[in-house]
Design a protein that fits this description.
Layout (H helix, E strand, L loop, with lengths): L1 H21 L3 E4 L1 H7 L1 H33 L4 H48 L3 E4 L8 E2 L1 H9 L1
Parallel strand pairs: 1-2, 1-3
Helix pairs in contact: 2-5, 3-4, 4-5
InterPro entries: Chaperone_Skp, Skp_dom_sf
Keywords: Signal
Protein name: Molecular chaperone Skp
């Protein structure tokens, strides 16, 4: 009877050990490096910069008009009215710029996430963490993910 109990305990211990081994398949990536070296990030940034530059020019024009009106001695009420008009005119463009930034960032994040999943699956990794939360151990998948994204 003792022999059976010992065998059962040994099998349970072995099963627990095997299960723990499955969870040791951890990888990590340097998220900032992946974003930086992903070619599409530059394209997205260029697109965003064009819109941002257009917004900036309009904003500067409105500021110049406001300063000119102030120098011309316009009343505080007229200046406040002009400010409000400029803000109302620029608000949709500012919102459009923010929306574009969100869309481009979300697109990049999804592409990176898909690539991370593909690389992890190919290498047999169960869990992928950001490099910043890993103290020791794990497999660095950063370069593999960058290569997957840029191929």
């Amino acid at each position: 009877m003792k022999k059976i109990t010992v065998i059962i305990l040994c099998l349970m211990f072995a099963a627990t050990l095997a299960q723990a081994t499955n969870f040791s398949n951890i990888g990590f990536i340097d998220v900032q490096k992946v974003f930086k070296e992903y070619r599409e990030t530059d394209k997205a940034q260029t697109k965003l910069n064009k819109q941002e530059e257009s917004f900036k020019k309009e904003f500067e024009k409105s500021q110049e008009k406001l300063e000119k009106a102030e120098k011309d001695g316009k009343s505080k009420e007229d200046l406040d009215k002009m400010k409000k008009e400029f803000e109302e005119k620029l608000a949709p463009k500012r919102e459009s710029l923010l929306k574009l930034n969100e869309q481009l960032t979300a697109k990049l994040q999804l592409e990176i996430l898909d690539s991370v999943k593909n690389v992890a699956k190919k290498v047999g990794i169960d869990m992928v963490l950001d490099k910043q939360v890993v103290i020791t151990g794990g497999m660095d998948l950063t370069e593999m993910v960058i290569n997957e994204l840029n191929k």
